[in-house]
Amino acid sequence: MKQLILSVVFLATTLIGSVHAAQKSSAKAEPKEETVPPVYVQVVTNMGSFVIELNAERAPLTVAQFLRFVDQGYYSGTIFHRAIPGFIIQGGGYDVDYKLKGNPPKVVNESGNGLTNLRGTVGLARPPQPHAGDVQFYVNLADNSALDPNQTRWGYAVFGKVVQGMDVCDQISQVPTGAKGPFKENAPLKPVIIQKIVHVEAPAS
Description:
Elements: H1 2-29, E1 39-45, E2 48-54, H2 60-72, E3 78-84, E4 88-95, E5 121-124, E6 137-140, E7 158-164, H3 166-173, E8 177-180, E9 183-188, E10 192-200
Antiparallel strand pairs: 1-2, 1-10, 2-7, 3-4, 3-10, 4-6, 5-6, 5-7, 8-9
């Protein structure tokens, strides 16, 4: 009887060991979930600079288009044409004469990506048509939930966040504004010029 009990225990131990080995082997075989690392760009203006962390994992189409124009130098010489304290600053599409620059391609609206319009986030500006965003971007100066999507309408796609120089964005929003060029209000009366947007390393935390 004792020998039979020992045999049963040995068999059970062997089976448990085999199961554990199989589980370990299976865990090793499962591919690790890959994440897309963030990309950083610096927006250099005549009022100072700020750094944006771009989220290519959540907004791949928007980030790809934005970086394409960054690499082309498209944003150099464009302006922030809209400045509303406590709301947003918006730019990237007009030159210093307040004329629309080019006719860039549109990008699919990615506003359902889970990123929301909190203070410091960066989104793709667009006219009322949901898929009509192109190169213009904005920085949220407050939590603007009204720009997020809901069940009845598209929102405005967030694709990054300011991680350095948010004080510069706030200063830009405080410049005197009024009617200028095609805009009846909220346009800086003295151009706030984007001198360049360039790739940079992640800022020190």
